[in-house]
Amino acid sequence: MTKKEITIQLPSGLEARPVALLVQVASQYESEIHVQSEGRTVNAKSIMGMMTLGLDMGETVVVTANGADEAEAIKNIEEYLSKAK
Hints:
Distance between the termini: 30 Å
Structural class: alpha+beta
Order of helices and strands: EHEEHEH
Number of helices: 3
Number of strands: 4
């Protein structure tokens, strides 16, 4: 299992479109991927789950991946969330 703390740098935070793109990134991997914020944990491959977190720019989340491609999954999710557009 790989776990990483990531600060969201997307200017709009994780509203509908950025969440959909994050789910697309996460869905490329076989690993189970979860995002944790303020004691709540959701499946990173679930649009509805991710939307319930209501994350804004500057907030920090913990991303956990467990599986054969976990390191690559965490790396690419961090890369996506760290984009300052």
